[in-house]
Queue: 2 jobs
Job 1
Amino acid sequence: MEGILKDAAAKSPPQLVTFIVYDLPNRDCHAKASNGEICCAYLTDGSGRCDYNAPGDCAAGVEEYKSQYIDEIVSVLQEYHDKVPIVLVIEPDSLPNLSTNRADARCGNSATVAAYKTGITYAVQRIGEMAPGASIYLDAGHGGWLGWKNNMQDFVSTIQGLGVAQHLRGFATNVAGYQGLGMMCPTYDYCLNHAHPEDPCCADPCGLTDEWDPSHNEHNYALHLHKAMSEGIPGFVPHIIIDT
């Protein structure tokens, strides 16, 4: 990380650098496709893998995440945040999993919930306070995941509960999963009920509007996310970046 920032700072003008901050305890609780190196509890088979079903408060895992991951990142950012434009995308999939996948015991158990909430809150607050020049974006899944109105409401409640909006520039979408960009409509729910079928912005190759998901492309999801967060968290006007 330090070498990348040093190289970027040597350019004229300094180059923008993007990092993915991704090492929560019990990472990727639902798919378990990209397990991290920090666990709340470990399986007893000697594999070093996480026991996602073990309850608790994940105190040891969170402390490891804070001291050996986030604090190390912050120490580097402090040197460069006012010299290099830096974008940080925080913990892909994690908060969306808390919003929609708590029925999965691996995501809904007390240890994973504590790890995600406490870890992300610490990461955002610590980076925001110590390296305010860096732009922080929380991961927000994609429209084919959180785009339904009830899922969006759950996600807004999750973000409200963290109390970190003052440190955020906004949200990043399409990072760990993908939905097509499409064309932006006048409003996020412009195409529901088969309204405006002739408008190119209502093209819906995955049939999401038939399932009452108004966020059938990522541009419309960005509209939905911006509206919901602005209304749900007073004074918060998030920017949205989309991985294409």
Note: The chain is about 40% helix and 10% strand.
Job 2
Amino acid sequence: GVVTLLLAQANNSTSARVATSDGGAHKWGSCALHSPHHGNKRTYFVLFARPHAGAEAACRIINRHPELTCSGDLFGAGLAAADARLRLGFTLASQQADVQGFLRLHFANCTTRVCGLRIYPNQLPNNQLNQLFPPGCGVLKVVFFRENATAEYLALRLAKDNATPNLSASKGTSKPIPFNRHLKLRKEWDTRITKVSPRAHTFRTSYEEFVLRLSESKETALIAL
């Protein structure tokens, strides 16, 4: 699963030189994400997902492990991203202009061996996505998706319905996108992410597989009792 993979990446990155997303090998000091305040070597990852594909739950599970950190929304127009920018002294414009500088300051507060973040569509301009994979860092690309497109669509519609204020003036102003449009957006997102840092070590996993592995691990724990 994702947790096992991230731990394996960390254990494989204990030497002074690591294979990187640009196909070469670099000393750890050359990684633009590495903070000089941390002497330990870090493993970084970016988890790409669409909303309501289960990535939020995946991050919560990852964060339960003492050696792993998965940050939530750091980019985009949401409140969590705005708080992250304010905390580090960035505006939306300056954050997009210096993605790696922002992440370096953010990861300086990460105390685990493996540090990563979750990215949803439209949180960063397409031409900025490659900035998440600077040379010398060996950033792992995790693509998290939901096999059941219908379930994802229904979850999206439910979230939109719950978010709409119960005011007569707003009735009918927020219409859900058609299912065919939803399928098209899913395909476009997958194509876009495939093109991001194509030489990076990539791991694809589904929400359904994630839940299955989680239930299997719980069953194993119960048997051990």
Note: Strands lie at 17-19, 25-27, 43-48, 68-71, 114-119, 140-145, 202-206.
